[in-house]
Amino acid sequence: MKLTIASSLLLLDSYVSAHGYVQQIALGSKLVNAWNPYKDPQKKPPVSVITRHFLDNGPVTDDMFLTDAITCNYGAKGAANNVPVNVTADVAAGSKVTFFWTDWQSDHPGPIMTYLANCGGSCEKFSGATGAVWVKIHQAGYDASLSPPWASKRLPEQNSTWTVTLPSTVAPGQYILRHEILGLQRTNTNGSLAQFYPSCHQITITGSGKTALPKGIALPGAYQPDDKKSIFLEYRDISATNPYTAPGGQVWGDNGWTDQQNMNAKQ
Q1: What one-character-per-residue DSSP string does 184-251 give?
Q2: Taking the CA of residue 199 as centre, how many other CA atoms within 13 Å lie in the half-sphere pointing to its CB?
Q3: DSSP codes joined into one string, 33-72
Q4: What is the widest separation between alpha-carbon atoms in the chain?
Q5: d(CA 87, CA 2)
Q6: Where are the alpha helices (DSSP H) in the chain?
């Protein structure tokens, strides 16, 4: 079953000012609804969304990012983490994808990252919690030439939207598009207090591309609380002369791998 387009725009939720989640996604010219953890669990019949259901607007933190909670967030109430859904949405390779967050007003300085994982067939049968399957396709961390320099702090100035571009040569098939914010506001004395806000969205990439995703990283596994370049650090010490490196390794795209730390994320 494929979800093609949302019937209407959702109003921006205003449940919190401290945390947030992706509530809608524009896949090229198509707008689809994501999972709403406060409204959707009560709906009858159950909603069909491309987002793997998650618990609430809070972070994966307190060392829980060493577990499968980091893959696609905590599962919905009473459910396991990272449960596949039975729908995907079509999007052409090379398309722009815009994530519409709830009104993000959090004082959580840190990077914003986006990954792809090939489901190897149907995403209904793919977990993503094992193996080096996650390939980073976009990131933005600390850019001293911008104000504010932290990507997550710029999100509110972009109407809580974040735009990335899918690789244009990637082979067609079903994939998980994973998007997250990392908050570093508590990591100066304990890296396990890092706050991750991941979400996973099942898509079907169309087109005539021939390129398979390369080997990526494992989630859980790649994020470690003792990582002094990316997680266990004092964010106030980051500067133009003391640059930040986002976790998860390099970014991959049509031109191969790159160490570029700050990619454009505006529509």
Answers
A1: -TTTTS-GGG-EEEEEEEEEEEESS--BPP---B-TTTS--TT-TTTTSS-GGG--SSS----SS--E
A2: 29
A3: E---TTTGGG-SSPP--SBPP-S-S--B-TTGGGTTHHHH
A4: 55
A5: 5
A6: 69-72, 151-154
Residues of the chain with pLDDT under 50: 3-17
**What is the rounded distance in angstroms from the CA atom of residue 33 to the CA atom of residue 3?**
9
Closest among 182, 255, 180, 160 to 214, alpha carbons compared: 255
d(C-alpha 5, C-alpha 248), whole Å:
31
- The order of strands in the sheet holding 96-101 is 30-33, 22-27, 96-101, 161-165
pLDDT at 265: 80
Burial of 236 (0-12, 13-18, 19+ CB in 10 A): exposed
> Left if phi > 0, otherwise alpha if psi is -120 to 50, otherwise beta: which for 262?
beta
> What are φ and ψ of residue 129, in 5° steps?
-90, -5
Class of residue 229 by CB neighbours under 10 A (exposed 0-12, middle 13-18, buried 19+): exposed
d(CA 123, CA 178): 13
Q: Which residue reads 């939207």 in tokens?
A: 161
Give 180's strand partners: 113, 198
End-to-end CA distance of the chain: 29
Dihedral (C-alpha) 127, 132, 136, 140: value to the nearest 10 degrees?
100
pTM of the model: 0.93
On the CB side of 76, CA atoms within 13 Å amount to 14
- 3-state class (DSSP) for residue 179: strand
At a CB cut-off of 8 Å and minimum separation 6, what does 46 contact?
40
